[in-house]
Amino acid sequence: MKTSQNGMVHLVGAGPGDPELITLKGLRLLESADCVVYDALADAALLSRCKPGCEKIYVGKRAGNHALPQEQINELLISCAGKYASTVRLKGGDPYIFGRGSEEALALLAAGVPFHVVPGITSAIAGPASIGIPLTHRGVCSQFTVFTGHEMPGKEESSLDIPAIAATPGTKVILMGMSRLRGTLQALVEAGMDAATPAAAVQWATTPRQKWVEATLGSLADAVEGVLGSPAVVVIGDVVSLRSQLGAAKPLPLAGKRIVVTRTREQASGLASRLSALGADVLELPTIKIVPPTDRKDFAAAVVDSPHYDWLVFSSPNGVKKFFEAFFAVYEDIRELGGARIAAVGPGTAAELKKYGLMVDVMPAKAVAEELIAEFDRKGDEFGGVANVTMLWVHSEKGRDVIYKELMKRQAIVDECIAYNTVPETEDPTGARARLVAEGADLITFTSSSTVQNFMALNLPLPQGCKVASIGPVTTATLKEHGLTPDAESPVHNIEDLVQTIVKHFGN
Fold first, then answer.
1. Which residue of 80, 212, 326, 471 could cross-link 303, Cys pair, CB 3.0 to 4.6 Å?
2. How many other C-beta atoms can be found within 10 angstroms of the C-beta atom of residue 140?
3. DSSP readout, 303-356?
4. Measured at the alpha carbon of residue 350, what is the angle toward residues 309 and 304, in degrees to the nearest 5?
């Protein structure tokens, strides 16, 4: 946060759709921003990279439906600069290519607000490339023209010179042109272009939602009717003929599948990125969020006392993360933890501990509390059992008490360290809930009982034919309590295995 004068506004290009196509500089600025003002075309997954407490303001535009008029967006950016040290204006594609970024920059300049521009990959290039069409190719084309189809050819106020565009050699690329495509293509033919010129259109380029149509200049308008909509990129020229060779990649295993991720916003990106990499169209619909425990003093006291225990028992990756955030606020060196043995409820929790250089002494193959207790029983002789040893159990406020009760039965001296709480997620800044209702989904993933309970509390209709995937038996039991039987359950109960289970499910 700032205290005086204007903060910096960064006009950042988010790229053409795939969240991994943002630049490193853009991502760095996004992760450190105090405020993010974002468009509809900036992928929702990028918002999960924002730091806690970052204000997120949606100003998206879609097919004439504007959350805010451009003049009000300009005023908003000026206002944000007065409140925050760093504001990121996240724009789809490149800020200066038909993105009205220059208008925002001029408004900031006039208001005396410092700004700078971080270029992004424009869909004009990435869209055709994503389906195997290069805009230039030696021996075929050595130049290209990019223009907006948002203006109606022939309008008195239009700045487009269609005859000049038609006469210019090379590839033509039309952005924002789907609503007036037929008129634009007809005008190009009337201006002298051959109606047989190869042409294509690609919608939602570079994302798992991507689809395209290949035709000719004269037939493309008919070919896209009822098949493609906005946002889409249209490319016209002989380079389109290269698509049959350069766009022949083997489909990914989850291509064409829309999968809902219900984890917390902070955790969703890990599962979402794995599913997206396999071709899935992922809807991030967090149903829970992580908040501090009700009794923060007890949590802090437990962390301070943690070096005095014989064992530290962690029930979840979130518990590990919150515990060590607090630990390093008090201690400077991991060695101050002392010689405590470490137990983890499963591989995911163990992986989080490894980030801090800690290996586990006891961990079951399956991430279930009962399995952890069974593992203690199996390995007890190696460390002399648990009777009369001190244990600090790090867990969530709403966690099951199986570990506590069973260790106490075995005469361990167990104290609780409640590191966090889970509460329902009330925000839906990306419109994922509306999209689920409107477009449906092929599968919904549940990674804990709380994701099940809070999803059901949203009262969203389960799309027809939609399948359900569970991370393990505890989550499955909760699903069944709500009348849902999972179509797939991860046998190892971690994220990696859940992903593979989903792939196998759709491969059957």
1. 326
2. 14
3. HHHGGG-SEEEE--HHHHHHHHHHHHHH-S-GGGG-S-EEEESSHHHHHHHHTT
4. 30
Q: Which pTM value belongs to this model?
A: 0.72
152 tagged catalytic: no
Length of the chain: 508
> Residues 225, 129: one domain?
yes
Per-10-residue mean pLDDT, the chain, length 508: 75 93 96 93 78 88 65 95 96 93 96 96 96 95 91 58 94 93 94 96 91 96 94 96 86 90 76 88 86 95 96 94 96 93 92 94 88 92 90 92 94 96 80 87 93 90 92 93 94 88 89
Query: Shortest CA distance to 172 belongs to which of 150, 126, 141?
Result: 141
Q: Are residues 353 and 417 in the same domain?
A: yes
Give 171-236 as a DSSP string. EEEEES-GGGHHHHHHHHHHTT--TTSEEEEEESTTSTT-EEEEEETTTHHHHHTTT--SSEEEEE
- Residue 295 has, within 13 A of its CA and on its CB side, a CA count of 9
Q: Which two tokens stand for residue 50?
A: 């924002």
Containing 86, the helix (H) or strand (E) segment is: strand 86-91
| 3-state DSSP helix/strand/coil % of the chain, to nearest 5 | 40, 20, 40
CA distances from 308 to 350, 382, 396 (A): 21, 21, 21
Catalytic residue among 2, 61, 211, 398: 61
92 plus 200 within the same structural domain: no
List C-alpha distances in Å: 144 to 170, 238, 239: 5, 11, 10
Per the residue annotation, which of 39, 94, 281, 442 is the catalytic one? 39
Q: Is 178 a catalytic residue?
A: no
What is the residue range of 208's domain? Answer: 125-246
CATH number at residue 501: 3.40.50.10090
Q: What is the CA radius of gyration of the chain?
A: 27
* Count of domains for the chain: 4
436 plus 406 within the same structural domain? no
Tokens representing residue 336 in the block: 């101050």
User: Which segments of 114-168 are extended strands (E)?
Assistant: 115-118, 144-148
Residue type, 226: G
CA distance readout (Å), 421 to 95, 299, 449: 39, 11, 13
Are residues 97 and 141 both part of a single domain? no
16 vs 13: CA distance, rounded Å: 9
- Consecutive H or E run containing 420: strand 413-424
295 is catalytic: no
